[in-house]
Amino acid sequence: MTVMFADIRGFTTISEKLKDDPQALTALINRVLTPMTDQVLSQEGTIDKYIGDCLMAFWNAPLDDEAHA
Description:
- The chain is of the alpha+beta class.
- The chain has one domain.
- The chain contains 2 helices and 3 strands.
- Strands 1-3-2 form a 3-stranded antiparallel β-sheet, with helices on one face.
- The chain is elongated, with a radius of gyration of 14 Å.
């Protein structure tokens, strides 16, 4: 099984700068997480959860993938 955690570097600082513009912050998160999600799914991964600006994904579960490294 392979597990991946990916998040936005410096997100706390970014979110503090955008504290008065939650729509801009949401747009930023969507601009990052949407393509990440698309890539995970295109590589037969499973999205486990989103945790704020973080994406958790895994491969080779719940079913074995014989081509898994």
